[in-house]
Design brief:
The protein has about 290 residues and is an alpha/beta fold. The chain contains twelve helices and ten strands. Helix content is about 40%, strand content about 15%. The strands form two sheets. It has an eight-stranded parallel beta barrel, surrounded by six helices. It has a two-stranded antiparallel ribbon with strand order 4-5. Strand 6, helix 6 and strand 7 form a beta-alpha-beta unit. It starts with about 30 loop residues before the first helix and ends with a helix. Bound molecules: ribose-5-phosphate (R5P).
Length: about 290
């Protein structure tokens, strides 16, 4: 028999409605709880943005500059990242399992820098992703390339598998040598990925009309840093991107190839999460760099 003590007053606060708040990320309100929980481990719910530290480059480039020793060069940066984007090889061998923020796992691969890069296939099973407790799987999409359909098919398969297990899919819009880096191109590529099911998208910042890329894409967009540029320019790039609608950055070389990587990631955080102007963030970078 139920323990129903009728002598004690109970307060159900029946006049207070249960909260029914929308999820903080664009286009993500209708996702399942597990997926939202993982996204909240990639994006910071208080700013709605993310600083993803990308160091998956070795999957086709080998030990590129700044990534010769991930244990020595990258692990000290991880406390400042909202999430890490990497391969399973580096995750297992180098990253301490005590790391508790979201992991974004590179899930496509195949060709090296010596070959046609668009010829990628899926390179991780969903069981492996679950075993590694990842928050998202990242897949390269090569719109306009020789293997466009194959790469889109890789992405849609990953979306189906990820949705089954509550794991997000990050579509990475690749830019090949012949592909124009124009607003039109990025509007096409990001919108295609969103329409075909990507949870969020990584693309590149373009001068003029970037806000049309973010506005036309119904899911969050983060921008890649791209090739190393001077630190102040990289902070300006991040600033313009978030001011024009990006939900953060997925930055690699402009952090780990900076003169002071630990200082640089902290300066990037200021720009992304606190809307600090690039010049001020650059001062912080120089101060932290000197303290080194
Ligand atoms: C390409 O190798 C990867 O997708 C990188 O994670 C991505 O390009 C971001 O790194 P970066 O800021 O160096 O372009």
């Amino acid at each position: 028999m139920a323990d129903e003590d009728t002598t004690q007053a109970k307060d159900f606060q029946a006049d207070v409605p249960a909260p029914n708040d929308p999820f903080f990320l664009k286009g993500s309100n209708n996702l399942d709880w597990g997926l939202k929980n993982r996204l909240a481990n990639i994006f910071d719910p208080s700013s709605g943005r993310t600083v993803m530290l990308a160091f998956d480059h070795g999957y086709f480039l080998g030990p590129t500059s700044g990534l010769e020793r991930v244990d020595l060069d990258i692990v000290p940066l991880t406390p400042y990242a909202d999430t890490l984007m990497l391969t399973r090889g580096i995750l297992r061998t180098v990253i301490p399992p005590t790391y508790t923020r979201g992991i974004v796992l590179r899930a496509s691969g195949g060709p090296s820098i010596l070959r046609e890069l668009s010829d990628e296939q899926l390179a991780v099973s969903i069981e492996e992703a679950v075993r590694l407790n990842v928050a998202a799987l990242a897949v390269q999409v090569f719109i306009g390339s020789e293997h466009e359909t194959q790469s889109i098919h890789n992405m849609t398969r990953l979306v189906d598998l990820g949705n089954q297990y509550g794991i997000a899919t990050l579509a990475v819009t690749a830019v090949g040598k012949e592909m124009a880096r124009t607003p039109q191109y990025f509007r096409l590529a990001t919108r295609m990925c969103a329409e075909l099911g990507a949870t969020y998208i990584k693309t590149y910042y373009v001068e003029d009309e970037f806000e049309t890329v973010t506005a036309g894409c119904p899911v969050p967009i983060v921008i890649a840093g791209g090739k190393k540029i001077p630190e102040l320019d990289a902070l300006e790039l991040a600033y313009k991107a978030v001011q024009e609608g990006a939900a953060g950055v997925d930055m690699g070389r402009n952090i780990f190839q900076a003169d002071h990587p630990v200082a640089m990631i902290q300066a990037v955080r200021k720009v992304v999460h606190e809307d600090v102007k690039p010049a001020e963030a650059f001062e912080l970078y120089q101060t932290l760099g000197r303290e080194g």
